């Protein structure tokens, strides 16, 4: 494949948008172009490359094998160009879009982001929450905080916090059964979300055989932080990450009856596209949060 002497930058931009959005129409709307103009630019780049980049079917397009190899490199190239321009003009006076899991956002980030904003008042922070893995090619997020193994193609990742879990409940609820003295005592109480896979893992590690969790009414509150609120209200025993609730423990609203903690290997990670690793606002936030999570009360992932 031989490139022409005149590099088709505009056509590459159109190709990148069509590949990312999966639609000629949506690419035209994003770029302010007619569908005809989009088709013409795609045709130009295909002629330049010497290979078809899209398979065109009625009401559907998909990348060819060549297009699939080319698309991520083109996206990365445009991100690097944008980064170069931003660096040249010192452009950090912009919004930082953070996507986070709901629990990390409510139990840690919301409590600590104020110190970042005080230190960097020229960076406006916007926070969205989702349990789904952020698709940086389709969503306007700068970086994400996610739970997992930390291996995602195309992304730079940094361990933030090792996730361990253990049953927690209100002291008042424990008193209703004369106290929780052994792991099996927990089964005398309502289990908040017995369908959570953390429960059988913890009971097995605690030596409790056949806890019969399947026979209990299931309820899914959608986020660990909601389950913690239910536990504080005395509605049952929740399986939680103790590091998120030091204030509730200190105030006597929650307690962890057993020292045993388990992990399923899914820790919290900071993730962002490799091509954006030197973007000033991403670099500034990365350095801040890694510094904050070196505090003694938090365990770094992979350090245990």
UniProtKB/TrEMBL annotation:
InterPro entries (alphabetical): LysR-type_TF_proteobact-type, LysR_HTH_N, LysR_subst-bd, WH-like_DNA-bd_sf, WH_DNA-bd_sf
UniProt record, GO biological process: DNA-templated transcription
Entry protein name: LysR substrate-binding domain-containing protein
Pfam families named among the record's database cross-references: HTH_1, LysR_substrate
Signal peptide: none
SUPFAM superfamilies, per the entry: Periplasmic binding protein-like II, Winged helix' DNA-binding domain
Gene3D superfamilies: Periplasmic binding protein-like II, Winged helix-like DNA-binding domain superfamily/Winged helix DNA-binding domain
GO MF term (any one): sequence-specific DNA binding
Domain HTH lysR-type: 7-64
UniProt KW keywords: DNA-binding, Transcription, Transcription regulation
Keyword Disulfide bond among record annotations: no
Recorded family membership: Belongs to the LysR transcriptional regulatory family.
